[in-house]
């Protein structure tokens, strides 16, 4: 019995959480690797970058100490903010000055950054951003380039954001680096990647099936004319009974594939074996 429509049929499907999207875990891991490579470019040292979580509906910071990034690809752009907290900046200073972690972490509190501290932070953002472009290209399967200029749009506060938060450790110092992406852009890029992967899987599956069919064995049945016998004739058959054929060696041969007549052929010989020569396909 058909079920009548109710209001539940008209409600849109719930939007999947960003953490549930297919491929998001791999992307988060690659972003973490990019952060580690970017930090190592400042100083080769035992940097560790650990994903602390993926958050949504985050609030945009009001502090001016932030890095706005824009990554462009042939399938659209991806806008992000890179935030490096004071503890992470302190760890950067320790590494940049050649420290080994023997001294306690420098307390920066909430004072404005000095020129040296700001330069080191900006340098870290630049090296990490370069590695992020490579990580996005590798993970999403298309080339992303870092927007180079001052015309990147501001992040409107009315939009939804997804935050990738990482804990950064070097020696005994630790801090936090966050990448905050526009959520709709991130979802579109991941969805496009999943679509591309789905198409690639479909193509590979089609090729596999074609190759499998190409290796498959097909049995042919070959007939040299048709003969008609009565029921009495068949009932009287015994081993050794001869059946006179109306067809001759020059009569056409039909090659059957299952119940389908596939080719017309002629009878011939190949050494001491009978053979046929394909004459034409039956359409």
How are the SSEs ordered, and which strands pair?
Layout: H1 24-42, E1 48-56, E2 67-73, E3 76-84, H2 86-96, H3 115-140, E4 145-146, E5 161-170, E6 173-182, H4 183-215, E7 220-223, H5 231-235, E8 252-257, E9 260-270, E10 273-281
Helix pairs in contact: 1-3, 2-3
Gist of the model:
This protein folds into two domains: 14-205, CheC-like (Chemotaxis protein chec), CATH 3.40.1550; 218-281, Roll (Surface presentation of antigens (SPOA)), CATH 2.30.330.10. With 283 residues, it is α+β, with helices and mostly antiparallel strands.
Question: How would you sum up this structure, described in words?
Answer:
The structure is a single chain. This protein has helices at 24-42, 86-96, 115-140, 183-215, 231-235; strands at residues 48-56, 67-73, 76-84, 145-146, 161-170, 173-182, 220-223, 252-257, 260-270, 273-281. Helix 1 (24-42) packs antiparallel against helix 3 (115-140) and helix 2 packs across helix 3. It is of the alpha+beta class and 283 residues long. The model has no long low-confidence stretch (mean pLDDT 79). It is rod-shaped and about 110 Å long. It has a 6-stranded antiparallel sheet. It has 2 domains: 14-205, CheC-like (Chemotaxis protein chec, 3-Layer(aba) Sandwich), CATH 3.40.1550; 218-281, Roll (Surface presentation of antigens (SPOA)).
What would you report as the Rg, rounded to the nearest angstrom? 36 Å
Number of domains as seen in the coordinates: 2
* Overall outline: rod-shaped
Q: End-to-end distance, in Å? A: 46 Å
Per the CATH scheme, the topology name of the largest domain is Chemotaxis protein chec
Provide the succession of SSEs.
HEEEHHEEEHEHEEE
> Level of helix content?
25-40%
Number of helices: 5
Number of strands: 10
* CATH-level-2 architecture of the largest domain: 3-Layer(aba) Sandwich
CATH class descriptor name of the largest domain: Alpha Beta
Estimate what percentage of residues fall within beta strands.
25-35%
Structural class: alpha+beta
**Biggest β-sheet: strands ordered side by side in the sheet:** 1-5-6-3-2-4
- Stretches where pLDDT is under 50 for at least 5 consecutive residues are none
**What is the average of the pLDDT values?**
79
Major β-sheet, in short?
6 strands, antiparallel
Q: Please name the fourth-level CATH homologous superfamily of the largest domain.
A: CheC-like
